[in-house]
Structures are given as C-alpha cells and as structure tokens.
Amino acid sequence: MKAVGVKDGSNRPELMQIPQPTPSEGEALIRTLRVGVDGTDREVIAGNYGASPRGQDRLILGHEAVGMVEDPNGTTLNSGDVVVPTVRRPPPEGANEYFQRGHPDMAPPEMTLECGINGADGFMCEYFTSQPEYLVEIAAETARRGFLIEPVSVLEKALELALSSRSSFQWSPETILVLGNGSLGLLTVSMLADSADVYCLGRRDRPDPTVDIIERLGAVYVDSRETPVTEMAAGYEPTDLVFEATGYAKHALQCVEALAPTGVGVLLGVPEPTRFEIDGARFHKEMVLNNKALIGSVNAGKQHFDAAVDTIESFPPWFLDAFVTTVAPVESFHDAFATGDDVIKTAVEFDSVWTDWLTQPLRVISSGSTGDTTVRQ
Ligand code: NAP
Ligand code: BGC
Ligand code: ZN
C-alpha cells in the first residue's frame, strides 16, 4: 500500500510502498481518509525532532488523521465508523502507569511513543490498525475536517490546564495573546476569539492570508517586528492568557512580561537549540510578586479530542475554507508539504470517494410503520 515517510538521514518525505497491515486480535483495520501536516511534521522531516521506530531506518509520517473502520475484526467498532486516532502508544516495555491511569498525554517523552513523530509509524498510509482504546469515534459528517481534531485537542488540553491552575480564585481571561500565526496559532484564535479580546502576534507583511483570517475572526494582528512580546503590555494591554505557538524559545520567557497580574502563559512550541541571556532575578520576581504561572502542555487525552469535535463545529464555515489551503491526493503528497505565504493548513487525502460520501447530508426517508430511516445516496 502507499505510504508517505521519511528515511533516516534524508530531509524530504517520499512515497513508499509498504505491506498492508493485518489487525491482531483486539485491533481493527482502519482505512485512512485524510492526514494533516503541521509544524511538528516539518521539524521531524528536517531531522530536528522525533525518531524512526526501533529497528527501522524510516518513519511513516502523519499524526493528525481521520479514517473509517474497514474491518472491526471482532472489536466493539462497526464497519463504516469514522474515527480519529490518538497519537501516543506504550513504549516497547509495555504500558506504564501513565497509560494504565488513562493519561498517556502526561507521560514524559521517554515513557511514550508518538505515532508519526517519535518511535512509531504514523497514519500517512492507506490503512492502519489500532485498538479501539486509541480511537475517538466522530460523526460521519465531520470526516472531511476530522484531521483538525488532533491539533484542536492539543489546545483543549492547554486551555484546561490554564483554567485549572487558577481554579482557587475567580479568574476568567478577558484578554488573550496568541504567539504565532501558523496553523496552531490560527486554530487558537478561532477557538477563543468569541470569548475574549484576542491578539495574535506574527512577523508577516500585509497583505497576508493569515492576517486576513485573524482580522476576520475579530482579533488584532500584532507585528512582532514593531511590537515585540516584551512591549505588548505597554503597546496594547496586559494579557490574562498567552498561548505560545511559535516554537521560538525566547517567547517562552518573554511572554511573562506580556502577562497581567495572575496571568498564565501556556507553552506549546518545541524549540530548536537556542542559548540567550535573561535577567533571572527580574523574571523570578515578576512570577512571584504578580502570581503569574507558566505551564508547558503537550499532546492531549481522549476527553480533549471529544471537546475538539464540538469546538470545530463552532468555527464559522468560512474559516475552514480559508484555513485549509491544500488537500492533496496521496499521489501529489508533495503539495501538502509545500510552504509559502499562501499556504496555511494542508492535508494528504487517501480516499476522496469515501470522504465525500460520508460527508453528504443525511436524507430522511419514511419507511411506514417501522418509522423514519436516514440514508446517504
Ligand atoms: P507552524 O505552522 O510552523 O507555525 C509557527 C508559526 O510561528 C509561524 O507562523 C511562524 O511565522 C511563527 N513564528 C516563529 N517564530 C516567530 C517569531 N520570532 N515571531 C513571530 N512569529 C514567529 O507550526 P504549528 O504547527 O503552528 O506549531 C507551532 C509550534 O507548536 C511548533 O513548535 C510545533 O512543534 C508545536 N506544537 C506543539 C504541540 C504540543 O502538543 N505542544 C502540538 C502541535 C504543535 P512565519 O510563518 O512567518 O515564519
Ligand atoms: C502533536 C502532539 C505531540 C507533540 C510533541 C504535536 O505536533 O500534535 O500530539 O505530542 O507534537 O511531539
Ligand atoms: Zn501536531
């Protein structure tokens, strides 16, 4: 079957032929529909992050997937169920306490594998197998945008951690600063723009499609070359909540200066090695005397995937059209890895026929005494 992977030592994705997997007992066979691409994939391809599975010299990419159950193989799933896989799997030594307690997202890197990123093959192939516990069922109508559920789940977890860190007193963020206008940054703006005053910081010249999206969502675009993070509080206003989605290491510390008293900074980026000096005492004092918090957050639990489904449904329809700039058939997968100012979110499509069919509206037909039935044509 066709798969998109990256060989060790190479820094470009390739179309590969690999055997179609056979599900073991307790696993279902899933037909892949679409798989998204994000900044982490680009870091993996560049060789800066992640690793091939043990004993392999290549990694099958893709961790933002949506698929359809092809063969339930005796599991609780049904043929045709639409599913989104979670990313983390137990390491070769077996399930540790994080997996046993149902919180693999809280495991440190050495106690988990990540499909398509770190030590386990991803979903950028025609079929994959999975135990039901690593799949989240979604409505068929969501199949087309299902590859956005994983990145939004990351934001759901980050928001939950931020809110729970302030749960001992009344706190509700009225101003939010999103650092980064890449795919994660724009999803954050879309998720939060209705609930607070949102600023989004980037470094792009206008006209730019990401700036258009930020402004159409009702948020304010801030050019970091004119107003660096450290000047945000003076130039605009102090912020209750910062989401760092740049992977730029200085932002992790500088964002503290943008925070209002009791503010929370959530760090999501995975930086490249960088060394710089900071005024440690100033940072320390600022955190303590203003009751500020900095939280790192990675990956997400199944409850965050469920929450992400509702969040995506609440996005304005125009947002998805503007945000997803490329859905490339697997034969043209390179198009989904292209970068440029007009590229925002991309995905590789493995099965357009099923994706289209699943997302057709349901039609109600009357079937007499047995009641109404819904069908797709
Ligand atoms: P992305 O599409 O590459 O976006 C990164 C964005 O940050 C780009 O728009 C880039 O601007 C901007 N940026 C970088 N440095 C900047 C600076 N100094 N000032 C202003 N803007 C800057 O990546 P992504 O998919 O959105 O992911 C963002 C980060 O989150 C990555 O490090 C990724 O690995 C990480 N991530 C973490 C998790 C998690 O679970 N914690 C989940 C997903 C992603 P330009 O485009 O103008 O260069
Ligand atoms: C993925 C997460 C993963 C993180 C760190 C992100 O791009 O969406 O699931 O935990 O990278 O590898
Ligand atoms: Zn990701």
Question: Can you give a write-up of this model?
Answer:
- With 377 residues, the protein is of the alpha/beta class.
- The chain folds into two domains: 2-138 and 316-376, Alpha-Beta Complex (Quinone Oxidoreductase, Chain A, domain 1), CATH 3.90.180.10; 153-296, Rossmann fold (3-Layer(aba) Sandwich).
- The chain has twelve helices and 21 strands.
- Strands 3, 5, 6, 10, 11, 18 and 19 form a seven-stranded mixed beta sheet that branches. It has a six-stranded parallel beta sheet with strand order 14-13-12-15-16-17. A three-stranded antiparallel beta sheet has the order 2-1-4, with no helix packed on it.
- Helix 3 (149-165) packs across helix 9 (302-314).
- The longest helix has 17 residues, at 149-165.
- It is globular, with a radius of gyration of 21 Å.
- The mean pLDDT is 96.
- The structure holds NADP nicotinamide-adenine-dinucleotide phosphate, beta-D-glucopyranose and zinc ion (ZN).
- The site of NADP nicotinamide-adenine-dinucleotide phosphate has 27 residues, from helix 1, helix 3, helix 4 and strand 13.
SSE order and pairing:
Blueprint: E1 2-7, E2 14-17, E3 28-37, H1 39-45, E4 58-60, E5 64-71, E6 82-85, E7 88-89, H2 97-100, E8 113-115, E9 119-120, E10 127-130, E11 135-138, H3 149-165, E12 175-179, H4 183-192, E13 197-202, H5 209-216, E14 220-223, H6 232-235, E15 239-244, H7 249-258, E16 259-267, H8 280-289, E17 293-296, H9 302-314, H10 317-323, E18 324-329, H11 334-337, E19 345-349, H12 352-358, E20 363-366, E21 372-375
Parallel strand pairs: 8-9, 12-13, 12-15, 13-14, 15-16, 16-17, 18-19
Antiparallel strand pairs: 1-2, 1-4, 3-5, 3-10, 3-19, 5-6, 6-11, 7-8, 20-21
The protein binds NADP nicotinamide-adenine-dinucleotide phosphate, beta-D-glucopyranose and zinc ion.
Zinc ion (ZN) binds next to loops.
